[in-house]
Amino acid sequence: MHTIESQILCASLVARLGVSLDAAESALLATLESFHAQSHDPAVARAGFAPDEYLLIAVRTPRFKATLTACALVADGREADSRLSWESFVQREIAAAECAHHAVPPTALLGDLDAVHRVGRRLGLSDEQTDQFVPGIVLTLAQGYPYRAPEQRHMSLADVLAQVTTEDLTEFLWHAALAASGHAREAAAAARRMQRGAR
Are 130 and 116 spatial neighbours (Cβ–Cβ below 8 Å)? Predict the structure, then answer.
């Protein structure tokens, strides 16, 4: 990020949050380092992004702003405010994901509750368990939406959710079930398999 852009971001944090300039600068450095590390995740390359391309998109997302805000508040010694700020961001993300999910047509898998339950039952999940896991899956997909592959850039989040296949949902539900039952190692292995399959 260019120096002038960094200065503008830090000045904005100072004005908006009332944090010190040192806290703003420290938060910006920590946030950029975090997103820089994410940009080198193999899943980013599989999605068709070079690290610099990923960062260019990432710094313009609500998640970057929310992370930066939370970090600045912590750096200024305002942990409670940071927690509230982050929780507010998460709630907005959940609401946006829910709206997109409601907009998925009933002909698509994620728009057909009976079809979703059938996928869950094949994995030995009760309908109630599947219902508990699906919102988290939708939110995860929504969080990846800003970084969608070039051929999906024109699509709305509802369109992206409508493209989830039975195979995709099976993997997502299996991963969620493993994680929920405390099988961290198996859940991590399932996540790696999903990432390898990502395009």
Answer: yes
Shortest CA distance to 1 belongs to which of 58, 76, 71? 58
CB 185 within 8 A of CB 175: no
**Six-digit token string for 128:** 């109630």
Number of CB atoms found within 10 A of residue 100's CB? 22
Could you tell me the pTM of the whole model? 0.80
C-alpha closest to that of 35 among 79, 1, 9: 1
Cβ atoms within 10 Å of 70's Cβ, excluding its own: 22
Residue 118: CB atoms within 10 Å: 14
Closest CA to 98 of 152, 153, 137: 137
In the DSSP assignment, the letter for residue 97 is H
Distance CA 48, CA 120 (A): 31
Q: How far apart are the first and last CA of the chain?
A: 28
Regions of the chain with pLDDT less than 50: 199
How far apart are the C-alpha atoms of 36 and 31, rounded to whole Å? 8
